[in-house]
Design goal:
The structure holds three protein chains of three kinds.
Chain A (H helix, E strand, L loop, with lengths): L25 E6 L32 H8 L6 H6 L4 H8 L5 H14 L4 E4 L8 H5 L3 H10 L3 E2 L9 H12 L4 E2 L5 E2 L10 E6 L2 E8 L4 H4 L8 E2 L4 H13 L4 E6 L3 H10 L5 E4 L10 E5 L2 E7 L6 E10 L2 E11 L9 H11 L3 H4 L2 E5 L12 H14 L3 E4 L13 E3 H8 L6 E7 H16 L13 E3 L2 E4 L9 E6 L2 E2 L5 E7 L11 H12 L1 E2 L8 E2 L15
Parallel strand pairs in A: 1-2, 2-3, 3-4, 7-9, 9-10, 10-12, 15-24, 16-23, 20-25
Antiparallel strand pairs in A: 1-13, 5-8, 6-7, 11-12, 13-14, 15-17, 16-19, 18-23, 20-21, 21-22
Chain B lengths: L7 H5 L3 H9 L4 E3 L3 E4 L10 E7 L4 E8 L6 E7 L3 E9 L5 E9 L2 E9 L9
Parallel strand pairs in B: 1-8
Antiparallel strand pairs in B: 2-3, 3-6, 4-5, 4-7, 7-8
Chain C lengths: L4 E8 L2 E8 L22 E8 L2 E8 L8 E7 L6 E8 L4 E7 L2
Antiparallel strand pairs in C: 1-2, 2-5, 3-4, 3-6, 6-7
The chains are: A alpha/beta, B mainly beta, C mainly beta.
Bound molecules: manganese (II) ion (2 copies).
The site of one manganese (II) ion has 8 residues of chain A, from loops.
Chain lengths: ~550, ~130, ~100
């Protein structure tokens, strides 16, 4: 067997996992959507990720067995556990936790040593998603990025700390160290650019442009009032200009560091020419190999590197005579027990947690069932949040946002306050209780469903369907807006369009509110329950998706 | 220069046809690939939707911007002198998801192209 | 009503690009005061004219569906750097403002 490089523990079962051959002369590493998870976690990949229209059965809309078949991954293997939800509990106990910045850092250092001059790209959603990131106003993550050696980043949830804080971090922490790039963010008044659109860095003498693409729908999916002077959007045309401009300045390789979401990236790759690779995030899809898209200028690779610091993407390019000739790509799962913890990063993580340790480690309850979130519809952790809102707030119906972040817990694990915060830590956590007519409820569900299942990815916003408590409904993802949602009922009775219902929710994007934060509501519920067991999920009845490879075989109805 | 009086009736009309009829005495539109309308796929704010219209049609007399599903669809009209190039940009209010239509008047005929702009409730995310 | 207009005019080749921002409420007449419940009267710009050397190069006719603090951009030919450009607006209440700028 080959000798394992420094810091990587030998493991008979997968001795070659991190021993990937060096290739070419230009290497770029990429992680994205870590959602501030500094420590190793469990993270269950989705069992429902439906693609409709052109997206049906195409990456990233493959789950479980369909995913393994498509990529030729052996069932029951370590890789099968990393990339799918299959047999999750047992596999998680066998292979252990994933991610953690100390372990990621070891892997980055090893790849750097093998690939001198390589760049580390951070795709955004780095500053948000944990208690400590919220309580330190993102400082813990910014310091972690600097320690990790991030070269270039773009953003999405970063913006929910407000424009002023973003600019402060750029000025105080990132200046001359990390290039923050976003070609698609402009001033609302005149349309002037806010951030650097791209940077050109030399990798082994090859000028390589990294163009930033922030999440195009930030002011819609998140509170616009936090970034009142900035306008986002996809801005294909400016992207094309930036590609051409960077090429004009001598860039031989053009990479887009994107937070579009994978379906949007794939469409963009077909419309903009001259991009060698779009390294994407936002939709949290862990995709082992790039999707290759043809366009008028040639071919563009599209990758997506998962979430929760669970993966490191490594793109090796062979560049000769000013052109990319060939490539190799690896999406390496970060298995915490195969990678030693980096000492400096461990010390940093320990120091940021120290002041909050007691609060973080409070055991609110014990779970008897697997708790997870990720998937198009309710996960068990969402169900718990909805149950808590109904019980604690006196609602008939609860809505909880379809976020794709939030970690998993195995049966028998305590639910700590820190675990709860992986599901709820945002800067606008206020809960709401409103009377809504049945008709209004339908409009809301239709609106959100269209953001996920619109046939044109440019009209999608990423994320998943709103999670619901109380209300039952049926959904036809293949229909158009206004016709997807049907059979709405509450306690066995059809929803009356004219009747008002008491609806609880949280994460209101319209205005700042000063009500009870969601983590208080759920913590209080959990303390009373002591033990929770979520076995029944309020999943809608699915129509017209039988046989869809984005639906796990066990979920076929 | 003599300016046309503000076309009150056209701005108060409740349909695209009646607005155009009132404004220009006709409403027959011919689709044209010589007009490009730019607007966001999803509006960041329905009260402020950036729209620009660019056309390579010669001798443009006017460009009008219409939000089909607004109660009063005509948002604005731009009378172009011979020296004006075929381009205008502004920001409009939209009450709901709708097609935004650019109507270019040239040589006595009306040419048009449209673009769907989604006005959404917002929230959620990955 | 002074200083309601911010303007940028730049010439490149034979084409001058004009961008203007105007401070104006652009009230539709349909909104209600949230406290009193009374309708807020319509108050919106109806016409914007841009003149170069006595020639109205563009006349915009606006209804209340133009956004608050309106934006207008257009292009025209035949002007040179340093030329004066005038932009003026008038609203439904007869209020008006204008600005002169040198093309950069
Ligand atoms: Mn994310
Ligand atoms: Mn995101």
């Amino acid at each position: 067997t080959q000798k394992q490089p420094g810091g990587v523990k030998p493991n008979a079962a997968s001795s070659n996992l991190y021993d990937i051959p060096v290739f070419g002369n230009v290497s770029v590493m990429h992680y994205t959507d870590c959602h501030a998870q500094l420590l190793p976690v469990y993270f269950r990949e989705p069992s429902i990720n439906l693609g409709i229209a052109d997206m049906r059965g195409r990456p990233p809309h493959l789950v479980g067995e369909h995913f393994l078949e498509y990529y030729g991954i052996k069932p029951g293997s370590r890789e099968a556990h990393a990339f799918t939800y299959l047999n999750f509990e047992e596999a998680a106990r066998t292979f252990g936790k994933v991610g953690g910045f100390a372990h990621l850092s070891t892997l980055v250092k090893q790849m750097r040593a093998q690939r001198p001059g390589s760049l580390l790209l951070d795709g955004g959603d780095t500053w948000q998603g944990s208690a400590t990131s919220l309580w330190t106003n993102a400082q813990d993550m910014v310091d972690a990025q600097l320690l990790l050696g991030v070269d270039v980043m773009t953003a999405h949830w970063e913006m929910t700390y407000g424009a002023e804080r973003v600019l402060e971090i750029l000025e105080n922490d990132l200046k001359d160290k990390v290039d923050f790039v976003a070609q698609n963010v402009v001033d609302r008044d005149w349309g002037d650019p806010i951030f650097k659109p791209y940077v050109i860095r030399e990798i082994n003498g090859v000028p390589t442009a990294i163009i930033g693409q922030a999440f195009p729908y930030t002011p819609i999916a998140n509170p616009g009032y936090m970034i009142p002077d900035w306008s986002f959007g996809i801005r294909d045309e400016r992207m094309q200009q930036m590609v051409d401009q960077a090429r004009g300045e001598g860039a031989q390789v053009v990479i887009v560091l994107s937070h579009n979401g994978m379906d949007v990236d794939i469409k963009m790759a077909s419309q903009v020419s001259g991009i060698d690779a779009i390294m994407g995030g936002h939709t949290h899809d862990a995709i082992p190999q790039p999707v290759v898209i043809s366009n008028s200028g040639g071919k563009t690779l599209v990758t997506n590197a998962g979430s929760n610091s669970k993966f490191l993407g490594v793109l090796d390019l062979d560049v000769k005579n000013g052109k990319v000739r060939d490539y190799r790509y690896h999406l390496l799962p970060v298995f915490s027990n195969l990678l030693e913890a980096d000492a400096d990063m461990s010390a940093h993580i320990e120091s940021v947690r120290a002041p909050y340790k007691e609060k973080l480690e409070e055991e609110l309850a014990v779970t008897d069932s697997l708790l997870y979130r990720r998937g198009n519809f309710n996960g068990t952790f969402d169900q718990l949040i909805c149950d808590a809102m109904i019980e604690e707030m006196g609602a008939e119906i609860a809505f909880s946002p379809g976020f794709r972040w939030g970690t998993s817990l195995l049966p028998g694990q305590p639910i700590t306050f820190e675990d709860l915060m992986t599901q709820t830590a945002l800067t606008y956590p206020s809960t709401t209780l409103n009377n809504m007519t049945g008709e209004r409820i339908k409009v809301i569900l239709e609106d959100i469903a269209d953001n996920i299942y619109n046939k044109d990815p440019y009209y999608q916003q990423g994320g998943d369907m709103v999670r619901v408590g109380g209300l039952r409904y049926a959904i036809d993802p293949t229909a158009g807006i206004g016709n997807r949602i049907s059979d709405m009922e509450l306690n066995g009775k059809p929803i009356d369009p004219d009747k008002e219902y008491v609806v609880a929710g949280w994460a209101n994007v319209n205005e700042p509110l000063d009500t009870r934060p969601i983590w208080d509501v759920v913590a209080s519920y959990l303390r009373n329950q002591k033990t929770v067991n979520v076995t029944e999920l309020n999943t809608p009845k699915l129509k017209n998706v039988a046989g869809n490879p984005g639906l796990a075989k066990s979920f076929q109805q | 220069t003599v300016l046309a009086a503000w076309p009150k009736e056209a701005f108060e009309a409740n349909s695209v046809d009646s607005a155009l009829n009132s404004l220009m005495g006709q409403s027959q539109l011919e689709g044209s690939d010589k007009i490009e309308i730019k607007a966001p796929d999803i509006a960041e704010n329905g009260a402020v939707v950036p729209v620009s219209v660019e056309t390579s049609i010669d001798d443009v007399e006017s460009i009008s911007i219409v939000a089909e599903k607004n109660n009063t669809p005509l948002t604005s009209a731009y009378v172009m002198s011979p020296r004006a190039e075929g381009f205008v940009a502004t920001r409009i209010k939209m009450s709901e998801t709708s097609s935004v239509i650019a109507v270019v008047k040239a040589g006595g005929s009306l040419y048009s192209t449209g673009k769907e702009v989604k006005v959404t409730i917002g929230g959620c995310g990955g | 009503m002074a200083n309601t207009i911010k303007i940028r005019a730049r010439v490149s080749g034979d084409t001058t690009t004009v961008k203007a921002l105007i401070s104006h409420p652009m009230e539709t007449g349909l909104r209600k005061n949230s406290k009193t419940g009374e309708k807020i009267p319509a108050h919106f710009i109806q016409e914007v004219v841009c003149e170069h050397k006595g020639d109205a190069v563009l006349t915009a006719q606006w209804g209340p569906a133009i956004s608050k603090n309106p934006y207008l951009s257009f292009r025209f030919k035949g002007a040179a750097k340093g030329d004066t450009l005038t932009l003026r607006w008038v609203d439904n209440k007869g209020e008006s403002d204008s600005i002169e700028t040198q093309i950069a």
